[in-house]
Amino acid sequence: MEHSIRIVPMGSEHVMDMADLEAACFSEAWTAAQLAYELDNPHAVYFCAVHDGRTVGFAGMHNVLGEGYITNVAVLEEFRRRGIAYALLQELFEYAAGHAMAFLTLEVRQSNDGAIRLYEKCGFTRQGIRRRFYQNPSEDALLMTKFFVSGEGTDCDEDTGDRELL
Ligand SMILES: CC(C)(COP(=O)(O)OP(=O)(O)OC[C@H]1O[C@@H](n2cnc3c(N)ncnc32)[C@H](O)[C@@H]1OP(=O)(O)O)[C@@H](O)C(=O)NCCC(=O)NCCS
To answer: Which residue among 48, 81, 124 is best mutated to probe the pocket of ligand 1, counting the most ligand atoms within 8 A of its Cβ?
Structure first.
């Protein structure tokens, strides 16, 4: 690839691209206003993948008393299968380890095989089903969780700086 991709903490400059990504990826997409709100949310932790000044992927979670609830993971279609979502999730894991979080959990559509494989590759395991969790179209959610060993990684430096990916 002629230009590299960097993983950076979310800033206001990423919001419009993130909203476009949401609209492209999800039937019930977050709006730019909802995403911008996350910048002021003390529980929110978001990372963006940036290529040539454009946000081509992002992942985020809410850290609620040491429990992580992943809110969104999305990568622009033409940038998929290059390890971007995997790299974004690694940033969340580093944050979680550095903050002694107990687990990260998420819901995913049962039919979303690609995302489920991604999460399994990252160490999430299937914990249960939330019936009719999604609308447009209605579908059950698979509940997946990645547990952290108590104290794992608590010696990690807090690393929220820019990172070169590809
Ligand atoms: C799911 C999604 C985020 C994956 O992003 P990505 O950057 O393409 O994922 P990566 O390249 O990091 O994939 C890492 C691994 O996950 C698995 N994986 C990812 N996408 C996959 C797919 N479509 N089919 C099968 N396996 C897949 C593979 O094991 C892959 O490793 P490999 O390419 O070496 O085989 C992306 O497809 C997307 O944005 N989809 C629409 C939004 C969405 O469904 N988000 C999840 C909501 S819960």
So the answer is: 81
Cα-based distances in Å from 163 to 10, 13, 90, 97: 13, 17, 11, 18
Q: Does domain 5-154 have CATH number 3.10.180.10?
A: no
How far is the C-alpha of 123 from the C-alpha of 127, rounded, in Å?
12
> How far, in Å, is the centroid of ligand 1 from the Cα of 74?
9
Residue 135 tokens, joined: 């609308």
Segments making up each domain of the chain, as ranges:
5-154
Condensed to tens digits (0 to 9), the pLDDT of residues 7-39 reads 999 999 999 999 999 999 999 999 999 999 999
The predicted pLDDT at position 157 comes to 40
Ligand 1 atom 24: the closest Cα is on which residue? Answer: 114
Rg (alpha carbons) of the chain, rounded to whole number: 15
33 exposure class (CB count in 10 Å sphere: 0-12, 13-18, 19+): exposed
pTM: 0.92
Strand 5-9 relative to strand 67-75: parallel, antiparallel, unpaired?
A: unpaired
At 121, the pLDDT band (50, 70, 90 cuts) reads very high
pLDDT at 163: 57
